[in-house]
Amino acid sequence: MIETVAVITGGAGGMGLAVAKILGREHRVLIADLQQSRLDAAQAELKDLGVNCDTAICDVTDTASVSALFAQATGLGRVACVIHTAGVSPQMAPPEVIIRVNGLGTINIANAALEIASEGMALINVASNSAHMLPGIMVPTRAFRHAFTDPERFVEKVLKRSNLMRKDFYKKGLAYAFSKSFVLWYSRQIAADFGKLGARVLSVSPGSFDTEMGRLEEKSGSADMLKDAALKRFGRPEEIAEVLAFCASDKASYLTGTDILCDGGVIAGKRG
After folding, report:
1. Which domains can be identified in the chain, with CATH numbers?
2. Of 60, 101, 126, 201, which one has the greatest count of Cβ atoms within 10 A?
């Protein structure tokens, strides 16, 4: 019997590791990250739980690195799902890096996933509730369209829009919101291409979660958003992991081309 594989980018991080623990009950997991030390620690934790786990160094902004990741994955078995959690937040990087990792990285992962897509496979892209906060008129959809023909121009155009803000704090925040808006938009746009192969693609938009990245963003105001939320707390990694795992499973086999908002009611509260 051919082994099934779950590929998880950012697999050594809070959300990635949490979803690997769930998907590892049914699949062999291949976790990808930038640092081998983090991968080794995550692999050891997963193996203690009885999860069959492999690791890969992968820079999602580099097409050769992404190609190597998927070559490794297909060498292990049939890829059942790809959970793309790799990303950076405003506190972690300047605007261009944010757009490259969150936007260009999503393009690279999706292109590689489409090449090996088969009946029943699912690609789940992690977006953010920040994408739901932008008025539609602010979303640079015309710039997003370059993703299909000239990804570097896509980065250039979105960065230019982000740099209209004067202060670095706002530039990074806008770059992040734009990059995650792109993840929503792009996941919808490519759903038909995956559907032709019997595969699915959708996005999941988390709010504030108790992860290393989530707590880092607490300093820039993410905790303040909870004042308007229905649930006045940070989410737990295992809560978003269950959503991601469900979306990737056969139980969600008719779910594609859409976004799942999981933010404890932050957006609902802001919309009143």
Report:
1. 4-271 (3.40.50.720)
2. 201
